[in-house]
């Protein structure tokens, strides 16, 4: 079968340079798309009604809870149930990156490249509203994070906050206050320098994008943390771009017990495996793909960025916690090479199998040419093998 997309020369050169085959793009057209039903509404949601509204059958994905497959050319945006927030449009391969985190209701989760926010919303849905868990999203792009804020509101997600910041340098720990509960006595007793939380409450955290003048280039290397305010005795606080009411008053304490339970690093990459992205480019033009993603200096910077993101995510992870690294690139340099480099730097870190992996329709792993380590627990989804968008996923456990 011929490739489903006609690629420009620099993209073909990128494939060659990375030993990637054009066959990977000879997928059925249209590739199926996927929706995820909001778990809190799943019991009450009539799937026949969704099918009737979308005008197409939905096939339950039997290897990941809550996901349905549908025809790729169906537009879900006009559906009243979608507008009401009953379901999300998200590829099931992206769902697996979140599933790999094993999110529990009390987990504090950090999502270091969160925008536009489909995975962050899934994390928040898995936490539900009974526990004390929170999700902290970080992204460099003000425009994209504004979309993320819109999703939090649309889907009524209650314990989330968003920062416009460089994920390689982000340094805010998990919230110590959720809802009415204050810092717990055990936390207070573990740090003598901690003041009463009332004295460090930030009362102006729901800053909108238009109130902050920030460059809109998401690939800029400048740090975009909103200017911090120094509090005597507690160090600088970083203002969130947005924080929901229940975690609005976090004093941003830096205690080892406030490291995150789970960290997702869905890293910036060349997007060469993201079918939606490529189909959009095929229609709108390839100019920025050539400039931003496929030139040699950009690719070198990208490798440094990916290393910086995974390293900082790990630094902010609790001992025993789980970090998931994912990209929508097929390139070994951005996937296995980053994970291999990272594991060398952190001998305490363990690559783990992703729960349920035996049921996933995976693409073949690339040849494992790292003689000193076994990367066979990393996985790859592809349009051909999985009928999904491409995604590489690695799950790493931090040593205790
Ligand atoms: C693959 S996308 C993330 C998709 C997102 N996880 C989701 O599920 O919707 C990568 C994101 O990384 C962001 N990014 C690029 N450089 C960054 C940096 N240094 N720190 C944080 N985010 C960055 C981009 O703005 C982009 O939104």
From TrEMBL:
Q: Which residues form the active site?
A: 328 (nucleophile)
Q: Gene3D superfamilies in the record, alphabetically?
A: Vaccinia Virus protein VP39
InterPro entries to which the protein is assigned, alphabetical: MeTrfase_RsmB-F_NOP2_cat, MeTrfase_RsmB-F_NOP2_dom, RCMT, RCMT_subfamily_9, SAM-dependent_MTases_sf
Which SUPFAM superfamilies does the annotation name? Answer: S-adenosyl-L-methionine-dependent methyltransferases
Name the protein family: Belongs to the class I-like SAM-binding methyltransferase superfamily. RsmB/NOP family.
Which UniProt keywords are present, listed alphabetically?
A: Methyltransferase, RNA-binding, S-adenosyl-L-methionine, Transferase
Q: Which Pfam families match?
A: Methyltr_RsmB-F
Which residues does S-adenosyl-L-methionine bind?
Answer: 139, 166, 266
Which GO molecular function annotation, any one, does this entry have? Answer: RNA methyltransferase activity
BP GO terms, sorted? RNA methylation
Name of the molecule in the record: SAM-dependent MTase RsmB/NOP-type domain-containing protein
What species was this sequence derived from?
Spizellomyces punctatus (strain DAOM BR117)
Q: Does the keyword Cytoplasm apply?
A: no
Domain SAM-dependent MTase RsmB/NOP-type intervals? 23-399
